[in-house]
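FW: tagging you since you asked about this chain on Friday. Here's the raw sequence from the shared folder, copied in full. Didn't touch anything.
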Amino acid sequence: MLDLSGKVAIVTGASRGIGRGIAVMLASRGARVVAAARGDNAAATVADITAAGQQAEAVAPRGDRYRVDRTDDHRRARAARAHRHPGE
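HL: got it, structure written out here
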């Protein structure tokens, strides 16, 4: 079994279904889980994980919408460099 102790796993859709199953499985292998879902929907997943003695916390986007600013030229340029020259 893969040991994820000391690692952080960000799981989107962690409130139900496959996302919840992945969050629980990663926590059981030692990862600290950041469970992301709309509103407070990930709270039950986090409660189950912490009740089992593992680490987890819930996060939710503001206004239930995730926003990515695609106009940030510095970040876009850095991402392009990373794509052209991986590992630098």
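FW: DSSP finds three helices and three strands in the chain.
HL: agreed, and Confidence is low (pLDDT under 50) at residues 66-71.
FW: great, closing this out.
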